[in-house]
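seq:
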Amino acid sequence: MGYSLNRLASMINNSINGGYGVINENFTLEQIKDEIVLTSRTEMKKLELAGKISKDELYQRIDCVEVECKPLTECGCIGLSREAKGLYVEIPLVTDIRYIGTIEYNQEFNIYYGSNISYMGTNRFTKNKPTAWVRNKRSITILNPPTYDLEFISIEAIFSDPRETSIFNCSGSCVDDDDIFPAPDYLIEIVKDRIIQKYLGVYKAMNPNQPNTQQDSK
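struct:
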């Protein structure tokens, strides 16, 4: 089915302020949206470690990621000559990447993680292949690109905050919190329950004499 971040925040807010008889204007929608993002990543990690979730359900694809050709010394790159050049881009923080390559999906690049390119293992089949060097989970340098005139690449990844991907949009249309949040429905239900219980716990701690309207109505 899928829910947008705005709809999720409203549902949680209505559940707290309506279904549980709590009236607290301090629970803002922006605060709840931040909680959704943080809680979804925490719960996703728990489910992943327990083998109860597939990463395939969490990847986002961003196209029109513009790259810039520059000397690698400007990128702070270690292990390459001063004359070497690469295509460079900063992306939102990622937790996992499964594809970096052309936007036509006709050429996938090798992905290498590390601070020093000298340690990258190569062989006669891969030494001249385009390689995406990922540092700090957000800086990408393309070595041996198909062409140094390449302007855009595509990336499929799990992003720490899906909202930060909105600037990478080929259509030019506005991407905002009304778009579907990238998480399966069963994870969304877990996130909703966690946040509701957390906020109720905070409210009860601050208002110990507040009656429980659910119990009173039984």
